[in-house]
Amino acid sequence: MAERVLRVADLTVEIPTRHAVLRPVDQVGFDIAAGEVLGVVGESGAGKSMTGNAVIGLLDPPARITGGQITLHGERIDNLPADQMRRIRGNEIGMVFQDPLTSLNPLLTVREQLTETILQHLPVSKAEAEARALAGLEEVGIPAAARRLDAYPHQFSGGMRQRVVIALALCAEPSLIIADEPTTALDVSVQAQIIALLKRLCRERGTAVMLITHDMGVIAEAADRVAVMYAGRLAELGDVRDVLTNPAHPYTAGLMASTPLAAQGHHRLNQIPGTMPRLDAIPDGCAFNPRCPRVADKCRKEPRPRVEEGDRASCWFPLQEAVA
Amino acid sequence: MSALVSVRNLTRIFDVSKPWLNRLIERLPRALLKAVHDVSFEIEEKTIYGLVGESGSGKSTIGKMIVGLLPPTDGSVEVGGVNLFTEADPARVAKTRSDIQMIFQDPYASLNPRWRVRAIIEEPVTVLGGDTGGLAERLLEQVGLSASDAGKYPHEFSGGQRQRICVARALASKPKLLVCDEPTSALDVSVQAQVLNLMSDLQEELGLTYLLISHDLTVVQHMATKVGVLYLGRLVEEAPREDLFTSPKHPYTRMLLEAAPRLDGFGRQVDPPRGEIPDPINPPSGCAFHPRCPLAVDRCKSEPPQMRDIGQTRVACHMA
């Protein structure tokens, strides 16, 4: 087994409001090994981006981590002061966000943005930084990279911009990349290019990737393991092939059956009745119980079982027996 | 079966030039963007026609021209035999307009936040002076909401419920044709399933015809009877659903199908597609797809391919 890069244990994020304390992330735990892609999937409001932001220490106040631990290479990073966290961000953890245009500075050329970032994180000379910037652009597959270095972000197409963002995230050679919906704003053909790129970089450099997306197809193609989130909690965690083909949690099963891809040939798609609960109205027991076809009394009263080692689904009555 | 919609040689050009003074000073030529280029197809009554393409392929522009929101530069659209832009009889125009309704992508932007749901749903009927007694309540129940929701405002509903309200509004004037522009792109998968199921149920119940515009191949594959594929404003292939998804003829269609993520694509090593969509203001000569096409030969660079029939499929490619 490869080295464990990131470990998140019992992570809880809370947002105090006037009426109640909301819990967008509730005791979530997973780890990512070097060279592994962990897919985090869920519908809007499931807490997947919030989990990613907690890991890189970019929670917007008043949201804050109130429980659990985040360790990177065995060292805790969830309680670091802001200036130390800044060094880790970029050096150790790279980030790729959904919209490539808003993650780049429109007033600086790509050369300036890349060299600035490299000089910030690595002890190299300016000339060395520029050489690395060029190598970075070439690595992410930008044609005629030397000429494109002096272009501004608006002169790139959406897919090329996302490549620049990936080059930026990689330029300090981080051991973990958090990619939050990196292909959602892109067309299918460009999406395929970006996913192939992420997979190649992960394989060649041994970078760990946390891939946050709502698209099950992207997860199937890119991830090694998958974490399914629902209402701020981990519903299921396991090998991507197991989880997608033999889901253990009824929510995962419902989600899979409601995608048109899986329903091929059927006239109707499976529906999960209702919608995800609002954060101020998460039901007692298992959060999924009001929508669950297998619900029993136990699910309404007892706090849900949590995903532990070996246990794949956070469910009292899983569809599949846990694989040891 | 007869065609409800017939689109003939439809072309739409947008003038995207800079203001004349800039052009004069910077010596720039006029910039014309051909968003839709000589597109022809027909939609049979009571079927679902899927229009797919990536951004900039002109799919929304075609939708807008069919409902009459945009006049075509050239060519014509007839819905039920009436061309909205040339028809002289105002009564026929009014009748045709109420036969066509539209469902938009973003249910947050397409409902007036200051109107109650009742007013929103009844609007297509009130503008034509029709009878609205109990209409909103009946339609709300038909789309799976409750009659008491008519007095509420849009912000009280979730995204999926709002899209149901949009469907109810579209049904109010008893239309024959619904143009749905990315109806589920803003929704989560489980909610998307609810809306797609509702759309299929209503289609069967009311004998509706849909033009389903989407970038999502899976949605189109699930819903459509016939599918048209657009690339840079041109229709490159049109075929019945089964034929298109099992034996695509145009290399662009093949590329799209290959690139779409698959649920069973675990660790799939795909050769990602080459290149990107070219600049629509200066499209490539000949076949617009030739710079990215694996089959391209010299002829593709000079001669634009014409639509040809191969079995049930129509395809615009020299090599197909």
Short structural description:
With 324 residues, chain A is of the alpha/beta class. Chain A is 33% helix and 22% strand. Chain A folds into two domains: 1-92 and 175-324, P-loop containing nucleotide triphosphate hydrolases (Rossmann fold); 103-173, no CATH class.
Written overview of the protein:
The complex is a heterodimer of chains A (324) and B (320). With 324 residues, chain A is of the alpha/beta class. Chain A has 2 domains: 1-92 and 175-324, Rossmann fold; 103-173, no CATH class. Chain A is built from 11 helices and 10 strands. Chain A has a 6-stranded mixed sheet with strand order 6-7-8-3-9-10, sandwiched between helices. In chain A, strands 2-1-4-5 form a 4-stranded antiparallel sheet. The two termini of chain A are 17 Å apart. The model of chain A has no long low-confidence stretch (mean pLDDT 87). The longest helix of chain B has 18 residues, at 189-206. Chain B starts with a strand and ends in a 5-residue tail after the last strand. Chain B is an alpha/beta fold and 320 residues long. The relative contact order of chain B is 0.14. Chain B has 2 domains: 3-224, Rossmann fold; 237-262 and 270-320, no CATH class. The mean pLDDT of chain B is 90. In chain B, helix 4 (117-126) packs across helix 5 (135-142) and helix 6 (159-171) runs parallel beside helix 7 (189-206). In chain B, the strands form 2 sheets. Chain B has an 8-stranded mixed sheet, sandwiched between helices. A 3-stranded antiparallel sheet of chain B has the order 2-1-4, with helices on one face. In chain B, strand 6 (177-181), helix 7 and strand 7 form a beta-alpha-beta unit. The chains are: A alpha/beta (324), B alpha/beta (320). The A-B interface holds A 43-44, 157, 159-160, 187-193, 195-197, 214-218, 220-221, 240-241, 244-245, 254-256, 258-264, 267-272, 275-276 and B 54-55, 158, 160, 188-194, 196-197, 200, 215, 217-219, 221-223, 255-256, 258-268, 270, 272-273, 276-277.
